[in-house]
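Standup notes
- HV: blocked on the assembly model, inputs below
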Amino acid sequence: MAVVLYNTLSRQKDPFEPIEPPKVRLYACGPTVYKFAHIGNLRTYVFVDILRRLLGTSGYNVRHVMNVTDVGHRTSDADEGEDKMVVAARLEGKTVWEIAQFYWDAFRQDMACLNIREPDVWCRATDHIPEQIDLVKTLEEKGFTYTIEGDGVYFDTSKFPDYGKFARLDIEGLQAGARVGMIEGKRHPTDFSLWKFSPTDKQRLMEWDSPWGVGFPGWHVECSAMAMKHLGDRVDIHCGGTDLIPIHHTNEIAQSEAALGHTWVNVWMHGEFLTLAKTDGDVRMSKSSGEYVTVPMLIDKGYDPLAYRYFLLNGHYRQQLAFTFEALDGAVNAYGRLKRAALDVRAHTSDASQPIDAHLQTFRQAAQDDLNMPRCLAAVWDLLKDAAADKGDVYATLLEMDKVLGLGVAEMTEDAADVSDDQRAEIEAFIAERAAAKKAKDFARADEIRDTLAGRGIVLEDGPKGTTWRKA
Ligand code: AMP
Ligand code: ZN
C-alpha cells in the first residue's frame, strides 16, 4: 500500500494516508446534465475511475460519491447568466426534469461504454435542497454571508482569511481588475452566491422555499453539502478537472471550511484537459466552443469506445492530451494488437496459471506512482513480449493489471478481436488496387472494392493522407 498521489494543495507528490484506513472517502465533481458529455469530460472520469480502481487493488476500501448537477450551474462562472438547465429545457421544449433525466442516462451510458464504474453514491443537487439550505444557514450564523436585495445570499470571501490560497489566486489583482460588470451589491468580485432568488422577469422552472425567499441554490454549495452528507466532515480525496481549481473548488473549500472550522479535504486531484489540435495551438475541448466529440459520435464512426480509453492511457492525467482521429487510429491498432495477444495467451490458461510477480510489481509501482498509465502500458507490453513466460501465467497477470486499466480484457471475444495479420495484408492490397483503379479512372472497380470490403465489415475513409480503414 505505497500509493503516492500529486496533491494540488501541496503542489507535490505525497504518500497517500487516508484518515481512517483502509477506508477512503472519495468525492468527484460530476456532470452538469444539460447536454451530452464530450470525450474531454469523460477523460476526467476515466482518470477518477483509474484512481478508484488503483486504490481498490492497493487494499483500500473506497466509498466513491459523485454528484449530478441539475440546478444552479449558471451560463457564466461569475454567477451570472441563466441556469444551464433552464436554457436547455427552453431550447429542447422539454421540462428541466426531462432534460436532467435524459442527459444523466446518456452520461451513464457513456460511462458503461468506457468501462467507468458507477460511483457508490450518485447524488442529485435537486434531491439535496434541505442540506444546501442548512449549510447556508450555518454560514449565515457564523457571519460569512450577506444578502443582496432582489438577487440572493452571497458568501463574503474577505471573511475567509485563506480564500484563494489553494489556487494561488492573486486576490488583490482580482479585486482591482474585476469590478467592471460586477453584480451590483457584491462586496468583492470573488464573492459568490449561495442562494439565488427566483428571477421575476424570466421563466421560473426550478425553485424552492428557503428562509431567505423563494429561489434556488448556487452551484458551488451543492458539492459541499452533498459531500458532507454522504462522506462526513472530512474527505480523503476530491477530484475534478483543472478548470475547477480557481473558482468552483476554491469556493467549495471556503464555504466548507468556514462552516466546519477545520480542513475539509486532504488530497485534491485534478485531471488535465483533452485538447483539440489546431494550427495556432491546442484548444480545450469544450461544450461551449461547439467543437467536441462524444462517445455516440465515436461509435457512429465505427470506433470501439474502449480504444478511446486505451488512447487516454497513453497520456499522464496531469498532462494535456491532444485528440486527433489519426492519434485515435493509432490507439485502435495498438488496442487491436492487445486483444489478439490477450486471446492468444488466454487459450493457454489452466487452473495452475498465476500472476507473474516481477511483471505485476513493475506495473503496480507505475500505477502507485501517481497513476503513471504510460508506464503501466509499457509494463503490459513487456509482459506480452516475455517469450520465456508461461502463456497462462501471462494471461493471469494481464487480468490483474486490467483491474486497474479497465480495458475489458476478461470480456474480449473472438468477434471483437481485431483482424488477423493475413486479413490486414489483404485489406491493404485492396486499398492499393483501389488507388490504382481510381488513378486509371476505373471508378466502377474502385467502388466495387469499397463495397466488397464493406461487406466484410471494413469501412474505408479517404483523407488528405490517403485511404485509411477500420472495422465498422
Ligand atoms: P461539466 O459537465 O461541464 O461540469 O464538466 C464535467 C467535468 O469535466 C469537470 O470535472 C471538468 O473539469 C471536466 N472537463 C471539462 N472539459 C474538459 C476537457 N476538455 N478535458 C478534460 N476534462 C474536462
Ligand atoms: Zn463540485
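- HV (later): unblocked. The two ends are 43 Å apart (CA to CA). DSSP finds 15 helices and 16 strands in the chain.
- Next: hand off to the docking folks.
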